[in-house]
Amino acid sequence: MSRVNPDAIHAHAGQRRKMVEEQLGDRGIRDLRLLEVMSRVPRHLFTLDSLQHRAYGDTPLPIGESQTISQPYIVAAMTEALGLKGNERVLEIGTGSGYQTAVVAELAAQVFTIERINALSRTAQKILEGLGYANIVFKMFDGTYGWPDQAPFDAIMVTASAKEIPEALINQLGEGGRLVAPAGDADKQKLIVLTKKDGRLNKKEIGDCKFVPLVGKYGWPEK
Ligand code: SAM
After folding, report:
1. Gap from CA of 38 to ligand 1 centroid (Å)
2. DSSP code of residue 21
3. Quick check: CB of 212 below 6 Å from ligand 1?
4. Number of domains in the chain
5. Lowest mean pLDDT among 8-17, 69-78, 102-111
6. Catalytic site residue 70?
């Protein structure tokens, strides 16, 4: 595995700082560990080469295979909603570019990430390993099943949207755990946070969003 050149990692530092101040801090993201991590993780390395100059803009961007890297604010809002302290085992559905995976890997003990498109999973894996992350386990599969033999998880993040959050994922959330996922219609969803306490679920909506579809057995059918 080849390590990413340190100069490439440190590039765009000014734009990254501006992104954190203007898109995250000024919009109410308060988790200081998260803000520090997002001012350090080189988002430009997770975008297509031709779009690196737009990596710190306030938008999602295409990553190939008709998929996207999420808008920085959405990455931050979803991560903050998990309330990570550093010792958690986290399940992520939708590795995509691997950027969100890196942010979570910085803030938790271990990340189990599932992606259904092989090419995206392989590219993300290569970048994350090149950056030296050693606490991420990758799987190429339909993530609507979750990862039963590694459950329960302290936190679960779903970065593609279904009509309803798949039951299998809710069942794999441990006691005291939090799950964040978009749910709703194909063209507009709510970001939902579920907290499991004494075996019961508390549900909170934290905003509107628009994600690519969660495609699979317990999501949308493949087109
Ligand atoms: N968090 C990612 C990032 O920072 O790049 C963005 C992920 S993108 C919005 C959603 C990803 O979910 C896509 O890569 C898509 O292929 C993947 N996906 C959709 N349905 C899935 C499924 N059933 N299992 C695993 N991955 C799925």
Report:
1. 20
2. I
3. yes
4. 1
5. 8-17
6. yes
